[in-house]
Structure formats: structure tokens, C-alpha cells
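Please review this pair:
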Amino acid sequence: CTPSLTVGAPCGTAQGQAWCGATLACDGGTCQPAGAVGATCTRSSDGVFASDPNSCSTGLHCSNEVSGAATGACEGPLGDGAACNSDDQCTAGFCDPNSRLCGPVPLCSF
């Protein structure tokens, strides 16, 4: 194991890709914080890792995933009734595949 990289440290590499750990992004050769709420973005984080300098911090998504615009803003999970494209964009963890709206996870009755 190696120590975690810090803001301003030179980017490391992992599997041939520039990498700064789970919470930082490689930007211009140095590790920088990934986008916070309100930051301009072009994509959401890479799952657990926020490795792209144009992405959002872990747990946030880029609003352009819903709007279809070229750029967006990093935002937190959306409440019930908000437009969505995937479950991870919603507070309740469910994006209805038909209505494309966040909502409660449906319960099955037998």
C-alpha cells in the first residue's frame, strides 16, 4: 500500500491511467478535488472513483445526464417526481424506467 495522494500532488497511475485516488481527480498533472455541488461538469463520477477532472465528486451526478446538454452542474440525488435516467440519480434509489421520474421503490405483492 502507498499513502493517499493529496491536493496538489503529482498524479499517480493505475492500470496505465492517471489516478489520484477515490476522491480526487487528475487535472493538468496534479491531483485536484472533483466537482462539488454546483461545479460545471461534462459527466458524472466514475462509479466509486472521481477520476475525471470534468466529473463530479463521488455521490453526485452531472445534470447533463438528464438534460442532454453538453455541460451541466454537479448535483446531489433528486427527490421524488424529478426527471431522471438512472437509479443512482434519485434519493430513493429508483428511477421509473417508464416515466423517467424518481420515486419510491415499488413493492411487489404476492
Notes: Residues 64-67 form the longest helix (4 residues). The two ends are 49 Å apart (CA to CA).
